[in-house]
Design a protein that fits this description.
4 strands
Length: 410
């Protein structure tokens, strides 16, 4: 266990507060019998490896030793350790969302951590069948961050889905399956799409858990949207209840009492209702503005909800999804650079950040963008909620009447 630990020059590596000279002791303390010592060691180690969404030169070097511990037969606190590894992976994914603008030296750190984490896909897949539901749950989460390895991970995810008996793990597995299976179809054109579709249909018709059902609907639409561009595809062959499930799921937070009890017993809580709803809404809108109107017509939709729904519509037409699944801006109009108040060294951000410039003669909107803006302009409830988002996110006027005149002109 911890093979190669003494061969690392820890004193030359940076962490959040100091050099990493105490890392060997902290890693060894993860293996002791005293649970309080293990808990303290894990907290101190991971608080130094990443802090405030920042990575360090020591971050990648620690990963192989954590993987060795995770592979240990009788290792205690495996769920807690894997949880921290998943959180480290989350930081990497967030860093990728502004990757094109970060300092080159920091970009190297991010890539090194990603490579270190991705090297242990086999370990994460094996942990999907672990006896502790918390370990299976975290293993499900981390595989979503490495869809490039879908050809390896999809069979493991499929096998575990059909035998999983814990509802919280099943929610994560179904969501992960939608992400990795979509990529799997892309890189493996000979894979049976129908077989993947049938697996998800099982959960669409299972009403025992609303979140599992909604995640299955979301996963199904991801596979279907991919098949649109890869015939044969039958656009009429959608389950009758698919959009209904997504519409209902997007309108309700579905934050059950047992979610909170899980949080009390284990530090990880389910994704917030707002984040979950945002994902459902994004998928609904891909089926057209008509679905947006159905969603807005549902009872008890507040101005805030209306704002979020229509913001999602605008994002889909004015912004794109990058490889991490996070939003980054289209270069619809040219941008100007302004000085940034952010600490460019500590966080790896550029010294200057981009802002949209005002609309100029010669600029234009495509038909989808015009349609989305008209939907927003025609909705009175949207404008009841204060907004200055158009100028910041899209380079458009914040005033409703000015925006209307501009849409008609462009």
């Amino acid at each position: 266990m911890l093979k190669g630990l003494d061969q690392v020059e820890w004193g030359k590596l940076e962490s959040a507060y100091r050099s990493a000279t105490d890392f060997p002791e902290l890693l060894r303390n993860l293996l002791v019998s005293d649970p309080e010592v293990r808990k303290s060691a894990l907290s101190n180690l991971m608080g130094s490896v990443t802090h405030q969404v920042t990575l360090y030169t020591s971050s990648a070097v620690v990963v192989p030793f954590l993987a060795q511990i995770l592979r240990g037969e009788n290792q205690a606190d495996k769920a807690d350790i894997l949880f921290e590894v998943v959180e480290l992976s989350e930081v990497v994914q967030e860093s990728f969302s502004f990757f094109s603008g970060i300092a080159p030296a920091y970009a190297v750190i991010v890539v090194n951590v990603y490579n270190a984490l991705s090297h242990h896909i086999e370990t994460y897949c094996e942990l999907l069948s672990h006896s502790d539901f918390r370990v299976r749950r975290e293993a499900s989460r981390i595989l979503r961050h490495f869809i490039e390895f879908a050809d390896y991970s999809v069979p493991f995810v499929r096998d575990q889905i059909v035998q999983e008996n814990d509802i919280y793990v099943l929610r994560e597995l179904v969501r992960t399956y939608g992400d990795v299976a979509q990529y799997f179809l892309k890189i493996s054109p000979d894979v049976d799409y129908e077989d993947n579709r049938k697996l998800l249909l099982r959960f669409l018709t299972n009403e025992n858990d609303a979140i599992v059902q909604a995640e299955a609907a979301l996963a199904y639409t991801k596979l279907t949207n991919y098949q649109r561009f890869n015939p044969p595809y039958d656009p009429e062959n959608l389950p009758d209840n698919l959009l209904t499930i997504l519409l209902e799921a997007s309108h309700h937070s579905m934050q059950h009492k047992d979610d909170e009890s899980l949080h009390d017993t284990y530090r990880y809580n389910l994704a917030s209702g707002a984040n979950r709803r945002q994902r459902y809404i994004s998928e609904i809108i891909k089926y057209g503005v008509g679905q947006i109107n159905k969603l807005l017509a549902m009872s008890d939709v507040s101005p805030f909800d209306t704002h979020m729904i229509l913001r999602t519509l605008l994002d889909l037409h004015f912004r794109r999804l990058d490889r991490t699944g996070l939003h980054s801006k289209y270069e619809l109009f040219k941008v100007t650079e302004q000085p940034s108040d952010l600490d460019g060294i500590h966080y790896g951000y550029p010294e200057r950040i981009k802002y949209w410039r005002p609309i100029q003669p010669g600029d234009s909107l495509n038909p989808n963008q015009k349609s989305a803006l008209r939907t927003v302009l025609d909705n009175d409830r949207f404008w009841e909620y204060p907004t200055n988002l158009f100028s910041f996110f899209y380079g458009l006027p914040d005033d409703r009447e000015e925006l209307r005149k501009l849409v008609e002109r462009l």
